[in-house]
Amino acid sequence: MAASNGRRVSYFYDAEIGNFHYGQGHPMKPHRVRMTHNLVVNYGLYRMMEVFRPKPVNAALLTRFHSDDYVNFLKIITPDNMHEYLRQLQRFNVGEDCPVFDGLFEFCQLYTSGSIGGAVRLNQQWSDVVINWAGGLHHAKKSEASGFCYVNDCVLGILELLKRHQRVLYIDIDIHHGDGVEEAFYTTNRVMTVSFHKFGEYFPGTGDVHDVGYDAGKNYAINFPLHDGMDDASFKSVFEPVIGKIMERFAPGAVVLQCGADSLSGDRLGCFNLSLRGHADCVKYVMGFGVPMLVLGGGGYTLRNVPRVWTYETSVLLGTEIKDVLPYNDYFEYYGPDYRLHMPVSNMENLNSKEYLQHVKAQLFSVLDDVEPVPGVQIKSGDASAMDTSADNAAAAPAAAAAAPVAAAVQEASESVSQAEAMDTNPDQRGTTDNKEHPAEFFPSGAEGGGAPAAPPS
Ligand SMILES: [Zn+2]
């Protein structure tokens, strides 16, 4: 099956996702993914792509990035027993922004399985583009929940892609800085992270233009800090040149695009002024490079607008036009009074002057000029610089420990997840490896130059 543009597009969705609740009054509503799916179906877009229900990944897979004790905690914590875990709740930052709710671990499994399963499909070259609107939870840290995110499916998807691709590009257009992903890959040159976000007295507070990566990862973290009121023209004026230059210098084998919808005009938590077209133009531009792409959701807190933009972006990825008049769907009443796909932007002031945008763009261009045009990133057998960094320079590089997952992914390269494992909708068919212990294998002797098999399988 191919889309109008000839691309093979796959779409991951699990009908359960909309049944999870963060709690009354919480701005993050998984229901928006169900609303998106319903609109996608009622526009008939499902006919142009392959639709998969992901098989939930097991806990051991999550520990490719997250710590064992954190994953175990997510598995056992429930609203009923949380009073017995006060110390851990604090330690893992679970409770307030990231509440404990019924089915929390299952929720994490569902949204993450689409991203990992999607990466597997791209690796196998079964798909050119994979969409997982339930994913994109970019704030989660190795041992900490953050900003409504518990498990970082972006990081886990990238780790899967690194099994096949020497270089992976992560692009983040959520209004918030993609801090969890940046931190995970801060010391490696195999993943470039680029984030366009509101900066200055705004969550999570990181993402300064001068934060460019560390050690081997220096110049491989790109941050474009922005002010309130970003509109379509301003966004395009920086997004396209920066991404264009990155594609040229970094030449990634795969791209992960986080499409947080809180950068849209009128978002409950956001302060940008993008239209659906402005947001989707980023997707279209990246798609134009023809590189395998994993497209994820993310933030988005004005419930009626999130399905609008993600549905529209699904159509863009399929290379097809959809009508502005919304088809009847299960959530039609949300879209009044206009019942149209596109929505007007506001007249808010754009605090990003042309001069400011030009200045930051020039700063980032000079960082990118220092990136090897054809990166010499072939990892030699026994090259374990990332591991050395985490051991010796932890104080100098707080994010350096996060390089370990990259090394782990490289180490695991020979045991790639089979399609069946990632996509099988019958969980009983496979043996569980949830309790698999792996104290040593994630920190292989390669750290001492022992020669861990490092090259990804071709
Ligand atoms: Zn966000």
What does this structure look like?
It contains 14 helices and eight strands. With 458 residues, the chain is an alpha/beta fold. It has one domain: Histone deacetylase domain (Arginase, Chain A), CATH 3.40.800.20. The chain has an eight-stranded parallel beta sheet, sandwiched between helices. Bound molecules: zinc ion. It is found in: Nucleus. GO terms for molecular function: histone deacetylase activity, hydrolytic mechanism; metal ion binding. Keywords: Chromatin regulator, Hydrolase, Metal-binding, Nucleus, Repressor, Transcription, Transcription regulation.
Task: Give a brief rundown of this model.
The protein is α/β, with parallel strands linked by helices.
Can you tell me the overall shape?
globular
Oligomer: single chain
The H-level CATH homologous superfamily, spelled out, is Histone deacetylase domain
Give the termini distance in whole angstroms.
Answer: 25 Å
Helix % is 25-40%
The strand order across the widest sheet is 2-1-3-8-7-4-5-6
* Poorly predicted segments: 375-458
Beta-strand fraction estimate:
5-15%
- List cofactors, ions and other ligands: zinc ion
- Gyration radius, to the nearest Å? 21 Å
> Which fold name fills CATH's third level, the topology?
Arginase, Chain A
Quote the average pLDDT: 86
Largest sheet: 8 strands, parallel
**Strand elements, count:** 8
Secondary structure tally, helices: 14
Q: Report the order of strands and helices.
A: EHEHHHHEHEHEEHEHEHHHHH
Q: What's the CATH architecture?
A: 3-Layer(aba) Sandwich
The CATH class name reads: Alpha Beta
Classification by helices and strands: alpha/beta
Number of domains: 1
Binding site for a divalent metal cation: 174, 176, 262
Pfam families: Hist_deacetyl (PF00850)
Binding site for substrate: 97, 147, 301
GO molecular function: histone deacetylase activity, hydrolytic mechanism; metal ion binding
